[in-house]
């Protein structure tokens, strides 16, 4: 996969957008194609679509959301690994609503070159895309801070955020995702995201096991 090169007469950075919301993809396309050196060459809403589109369109960059319509809230992590394994020269830039140091580190381990949150301004997003196209790494300030905090955290005990601890306490009372969302005034999708993070950090395979492991660590 050839990187953009002014000397070859092909200065455009070729981009594929992977997000399960069409309106988000359309908005990103509109913003990015205002830049003379950026070209959106494909879109995908699912992991399967993304694998096909990337193989056909041969982009330089994939702008990847972590939550896709056909799977869980971190399906994008698995897709990131697949894309970078199949296309070693591909630059994957995660663009997501989820800010968690563990996710940032996981994305890097799966080959991502950058991680930015969706409320980043257009200038910062474009700068990140260009940096990744140059084979550099790029993280917005909050993602970088979350990554550093996660990497510096003691490995002997999982570090749960205050929100995750709140969700965990509700899990201990046997509440469903919907009930937890209503109690904490967050969406059911966000609850699912936090539950998966809790289970990952506690190396638990079920909600009950997560509560049990948390009780042993005196987290609840």
From TrEMBL:
<dbReference type="InterPro" id="IPR016032">
    <property type="entry name" value="Sig_transdc_resp-reg_C-effctor"/>
</dbReference>
<feature type="domain" description="HTH luxR-type">
    <location>
        <begin position="153"/>
        <end position="218"/>
    </location>
</feature>
<dbReference type="Pfam" id="PF00196">
    <property type="entry name" value="GerE"/>
</dbReference>
<dbReference type="GO" id="GO:0000160">
    <property type="term" value="P:phosphorelay signal transduction system"/>
</dbReference>
<dbReference type="InterPro" id="IPR039420">
    <property type="entry name" value="WalR-like"/>
</dbReference>
<keyword id="KW-0597">Phosphoprotein</keyword>
<dbReference type="InterPro" id="IPR001789">
    <property type="entry name" value="Sig_transdc_resp-reg_receiver"/>
</dbReference>
<feature type="domain" description="Response regulatory">
    <location>
        <begin position="14"/>
        <end position="133"/>
    </location>
</feature>
<dbReference type="Pfam" id="PF00072">
    <property type="entry name" value="Response_reg"/>
</dbReference>
<dbReference type="InterPro" id="IPR011006">
    <property type="entry name" value="CheY-like_superfamily"/>
</dbReference>
<dbReference type="InterPro" id="IPR058245">
    <property type="entry name" value="NreC/VraR/RcsB-like_REC"/>
</dbReference>
<dbReference type="GO" id="GO:0006355">
    <property type="term" value="P:regulation of DNA-templated transcription"/>
</dbReference>
<protein>
    <submittedName>
        <fullName>DNA-binding response regulator, NarL/FixJ family, contains REC and HTH domains</fullName>
    </submittedName>
</protein>
<feature type="modified residue" description="4-aspartylphosphate">
    <location>
        <position position="65"/>
    </location>
</feature>
<dbReference type="InterPro" id="IPR000792">
    <property type="entry name" value="Tscrpt_reg_LuxR_C"/>
</dbReference>
<dbReference type="GO" id="GO:0003677">
    <property type="term" value="F:DNA binding"/>
</dbReference>
<keyword id="KW-0238">DNA-binding</keyword>
């Amino acid at each position: 996969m050839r990187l953009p090169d002014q000397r070859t007469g092909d200065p455009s950075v070729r981009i594929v957008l992977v997000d399960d919301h069409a309106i988000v993809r359309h908005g990103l396309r509109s913003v990015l194609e205002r830049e003379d050196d950026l070209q959106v060459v494909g879109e995908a809403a699912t992991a399967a679509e993304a694998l096909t589109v990337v193989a056909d369109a041969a982009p330089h960059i994939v702008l990847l959301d972590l939550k896709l319509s056909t799977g869980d809230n971190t399906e994008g992590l698995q897709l990131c690994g697949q894309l970078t394994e199949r296309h070693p020269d591909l630059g994957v830039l995660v663009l997501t609503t989820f800010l968690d140091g563990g996710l940032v580190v996981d994305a890097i381990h799966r080959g991502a070159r950058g991680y930015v949150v969706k409320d980043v301004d257009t200038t910062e997003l474009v700068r990140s895309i260009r940096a990744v196209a140059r084979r550099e790494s790029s993280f917005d300030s909050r993602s970088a801070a979350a990554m550093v905090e996660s990497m510096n955290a003691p490995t002997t005990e999982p570090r749960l955020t205050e929100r995750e601890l709140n969700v965990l306490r509700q899990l201990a009372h046997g509440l469903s995702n919907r009930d937890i969302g209503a109690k904490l005034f967050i969406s059911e999708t966000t609850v699912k995201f936090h539950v998966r993070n809790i289970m990952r950090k506690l190396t638990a395979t079920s909600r009950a096991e997560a509560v049990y492991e948390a009780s042993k660590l005196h987290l609840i």
